[in-house]
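In response to the reviewer comment on reproducibility (Comment 2.3), we provide here a single inverse folding case reported in full, input and output, so that an independent group could reproduce the run without further information from us. The C-alpha cells appear first.
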C-alpha cells in the first residue's frame, strides 16, 4: 500500500490541475445527477419488533387516522380576563379558525372544541378539547402517514397560523408531529461556529494562512461532494433527511483531522530540504496510511449501527460512512494536489512568531513542545494520576444525567411549536403534551375495551384517559 500511496501522492503533486480537475468534474457530475434524478430524503421511523411499531401497524391495518401524523393548534383569548366560556367573540373566532384548519387539503379529521362549547363548555372539557379553566382550546388535526405528506402540508398549516398573528381576539399557535417531520432545521450556524474554531486552531498550530487553508479547503470540498451525493445514495438505502447534518459534523472533523496529519508531515519534510513532489508523495505514503486505516476504522464502526436493527439508524450510518470515505479519498488525492500548488510557499503569510527559520533549526515553538514532552515523561506517574483525577471530575456530571427524547418544550421560546407546547401545559396540566395511544386488536370482541379502559384510568401515573374509540 505504501508504494501505491506514494505514487498517487506524487502524481497529484506533480500534476495538481489534473487531480483538481478530476475532483471538480466528479463534483459537477454528482451535483447534476443529484439534482436531475436524485431521490428526496425521507424520514421513516419504523422500528421492527417494538411495541410502538406493532401499534402503528395495527392502526394502519384498521384504517385508523391515529396511524398518521397529528398537528395541534392551541388557541387562547388575547384578553387575559376572558375565557371561551364567557366570550362569544372568542367562540366565534375559534369556530372560524377551526373551519380553516379542517379545510386544509391533507387533513383527515379535526377535533371540534367550538362544537363542544355550544352547551356551555361541559362537553368540550370532558373530551379534552378545552381546558378546565376555559382559557385554552385545542384543535387536533389528523393527517395520513408521513409517506403521503410533504412540506407543502406543513406550509399550509403555518399559513393559517400566520394569518391570525395579528388577530385582536385570539392568539393561535401550532405544533405536533407534522412540525417534527417536515420543519426544516436552522442549518449552518453550528457548522460555521465549528469551522471558525477550526480556522483559529489550525492558524495557531501551523502559524501560516496557506497551511491553515489547505485542510479547510480540502474538507469543505469533500464535504460538499459527499453531502451532494446523498440523493443518489437513496437508490441503495433510504437516507433520512437529518442524516446529512450528522454526516457533515463527522465529515468536517474527520477531513480536517486527516489533512492536519498529512500537512504536518509535509511541512516537516520540506523543512528538512526535501522537494515538494517527493515530500507530498512520502507524506501520503506514510501519514496517508494512517489516514486510510483511521478512515476505514470509522466506516466499519459507523456501519455497526446496522446491528441496532433500526432501519433509519442504519441508513444514517451509511450516510456518515459515505462522507468519511469521500474525505479519505480527498486526503490522499486532492490534498497532495493542493500541496503541489502551494509548493514552498506553504509557510507564507505566517504569524511572525511562528515562521520557520531559514537555517533549518527547529522553530522556537517546536522546541517548547519538545521541552514540555520531556518534562511530562520525566514525571509520568504524577501526570497520569493528575490527568485521571481531572478526567473523573469532568465526567462527574454524567452521574446526574437524565436521558430522554427532545420535544417541543426544548425549542426556543420564539417558535410557535414551543408557544403551543406552553399553552397546552398551562391549560391542561402535566402530561398533556405527551399523550400515548393504546391500540387493541379486538378480534371481533369489543368487550375487552372497557376493562382495559378502567385499568388504565386507575393507574396513578396517568393524569387522564380519553374515552375509547372503535374503528369499524
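Designed residues, in position order:
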Amino acid at each position: 500500500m505504501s508504494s501505491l500511496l506514494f505514487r498517487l501522492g506524487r502524481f497529484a503533486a506533480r500534476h495538481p490541475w489534473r487531480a483538481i480537475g478530476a475532483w471538480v468534474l466528479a463534483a459537477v457530475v454528482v451535483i447534476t445527477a443529484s439534482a436531475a434524478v436524485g431521490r428526496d430524503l425521507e424520514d421513516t421511523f419504523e422500528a421492527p419488533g417494538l411495541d410502538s411499531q406493532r401499534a402503528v401497524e395495527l392502526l394502519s391495518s384498521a384504517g385508523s387516522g391515529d396511524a398518521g401524523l397529528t398537528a395541534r393548534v392551541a388557541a387562547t383569548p388575547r384578553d387575559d380576563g376572558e375565557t371561551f366560556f364567557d366570550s362569544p367573540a372568542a367562540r366565534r373566532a375559534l369556530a372560524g379558525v377551526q373551519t380553516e384548519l379542517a379545510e386544509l387539503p391533507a387533513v383527515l379529521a379535526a377535533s371540534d372544541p367550538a362544537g363542544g362549547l355550544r352547551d356551555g363548555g361541559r362537553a368540550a372539557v370532558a373530551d379534552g378539547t378545552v381546558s378546565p379553566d376555559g382559557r385554552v382550546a385545542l384543535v387536533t388535526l389528523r393527517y395520513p402517514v408521513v409517506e403521503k405528506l410533504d412540506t407543502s402540508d406543513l406550509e399550509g398549516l403555518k399559513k393559517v397560523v400566520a394569518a391570525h398573528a395579528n388577530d385582536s381576539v385570539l392568539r393561535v399557535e401550532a405544533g405536533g408531529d407534522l412540525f417534527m417531520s417536515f420543519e426544516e432545521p436552522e442549518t449552518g450556524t453550528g457548522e460555521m461556529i465549528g469551522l471558525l474554531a477550526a480556522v483559529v486552531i489550525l492558524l495557531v498550530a501551523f502559524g501560516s494562512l496557506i497551511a491553515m487553508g489547505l485542510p479547510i479547503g480540502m474538507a469543505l470540498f469533500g464535504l460538499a461532494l459527499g453531502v451532494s451525493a446523498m440523493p443518489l445514495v437513496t437508490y441503495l438505502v433510504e437516507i433520512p433527511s437529518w442524516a446529512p447534518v450528522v454526516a457533515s459534523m463527522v465529515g468536517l472533523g474527520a477531513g480536517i483531522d486527516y489533512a492536519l496529519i498529512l500537512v504536518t508531515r509535509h511541512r516537516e519534510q520540506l523543512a528538512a530540504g526535501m522537494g515538494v513532489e517527493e515530500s507530498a508523495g512520502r507524506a501520503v505514503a506514510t501519514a496517508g496510511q494512517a489516514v486510510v486505516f483511521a478512515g476505514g476504522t470509522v466506516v466499519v464502526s459507523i456501519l455497526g449501527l446496522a446491528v441496532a436493527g433500526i432501519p433509519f439508524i442504519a441508513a444514517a450510518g451509511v450516510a456518515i460512512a459515505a462522507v468519511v470515505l469521500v474525505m479519505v479519498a480527498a486526503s490522499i488525492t486532492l490534498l497532495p494536489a493542493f500541496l503541489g500548488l502551494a509548493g514552498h510557499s506553504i509557510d507564507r503569510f505566517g504569524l511572525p512568531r511562528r515562521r520557520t527559520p531559514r537555517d533549518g533549526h527547529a522553530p522556537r515553538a517546536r522546541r517548547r513542545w519538545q521541552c514540555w514532552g520531556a518534562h511530562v515523561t520525566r514525571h509520568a506517574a504524577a501526570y497520569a494520576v493528575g490527568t485521571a483525577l481531572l478526567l473523573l471530575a469532568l465526567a462527574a456530571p454524567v452521574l446526574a444525567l437524565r436521558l430522554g427524547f427532545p420535544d417541543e418544550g426544548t425549542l426556543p421560546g420564539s417558535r410557535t411549536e414551543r408557544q403551543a407546547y406552553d399553552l397546552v401545559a398551562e391549560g391542561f396540566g402535566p402530561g398533556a403534551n405527551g399523550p400515548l395511544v393504546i391500540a387493541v386488536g379486538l378480534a371481533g370482541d369489543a368487550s375487552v375495551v372497557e376493562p382495559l379502559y378502567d385499568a388504565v384510568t386507575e393507574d396513578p401515573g396517568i393524569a387522564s384517559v380519553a374515552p375509547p374509540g372503535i374503528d369499524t
